[in-house]
Amino acid sequence: MEEKIVFEGKTKKEINIIIRYPNSSDAASMTEYINILSDERTFITYQGEKESLENETKYLNSKLKEIKNKKAVLLLVLADKKLIGISGIDMRTKTQRHIGLLGISIAKEFRGEGIGKLLLETVINEATNNLSTLEIILLGVYSKNTLALNMYKQFGFIEEGRLPNGVKLKNGYDDQIYMYKNVK
Predict the structure, then answer these.
(1) Which of 81, 98, 141, 159 has its CA 20 to 30 Å from the CA of residue 166?
(2) Closest among 124, 120, 139 to 178, alpha carbons compared
(3) With the CA atoms of 141, 22, 60 and 105 taken in that order, what torsion angle do they form, in degrees rounded to the nearest 10?
(4) Distance between CA atoms of 161 and 107, rounded to whole angstroms?
(5) What is the phi-psi region of residue 137: left when phi exceeds 0, alpha when psi lies from -120 to 50, beta otherwise?
(6) Is 181 helix (H, G, I), strand (E, B) or coil?
């Protein structure tokens, strides 16, 4: 797949970044990225587990196929060729084929520079322009992740439910908050 760049610019700290679709050679950097985030044990599903290059390659290949078939959007943020963020929207199937599930993450040392907001805006735009059945974007967020909650609210996401103790962490529980945004 040809590398499609959707944004080139600078962060608040004047670091050059590129937001682009992945290609088949990104599996190693994606594996390294998810494993670093996992070690943080913050607000993502991974909590110290390690992902293998083999599994990440399979994941990437499936995503590339879904992107080609207009069933997903996946964007990478790179700063000086280093992967520093990922976001995607995956379409559900059958009776929920109008719903896209959103995920987003930014590397620790690049948080607070507006990259998350830029990436969220970009992935929503790409999804609404490329996923013809998309009507609703759905996401889940840990209740203690107040920065993300506030960002989602700024983008018009509405809390639709809360699962008390829906996330089991090593040091206790957190509520899982579900949010949605109508895009059509």
Answers:
(1) 98
(2) 139
(3) -20
(4) 28
(5) beta
(6) strand
Local structure of residue 26 (DSSP, 8 states): G
Q: What tokens were used for 1?
A: 């797949």
Please tell me the total number of residues recorded for the chain in this structure: 184
User: What are the pLDDT digits (tens) for 89-107?
Assistant: 999 999 999 999 999 999 9
Token code pair at residue 144: 């203690």
- What tens digit of pLDDT does each residue of 11-49 get? 888 989 999 999 999 999 999 999 998 888 777 777 768
Around 100, how many Cα atoms within 13 Å sit in the side-chain half-sphere?
31
Entry pTM: 0.94
Q: 169 is written with which tokens?
A: 């962490």
The model's pLDDT over 152-173, given as tens digits with 9 standing for 90+, comes to: 999 999 999 999 999 988 888 9
Tokens of 80: 């000086």
Q: H helices within the chain, ranges in order? A: 27-40, 53-68, 115-130, 146-154
Chain position carrying tokens 């190693």: 28
Q: What is the DSSP letter of 74?
A: E
Distance CA 63, CA 42 (A): 24
Residue 92: DSSP 8-state: -
Q: Please tell me the distance from the alpha carbon of residue 140 to that of residue 150, in angstroms, as a whole number.
A: 13
**Which has the closest alpha carbon to 135: 85, 91, 81?**
91
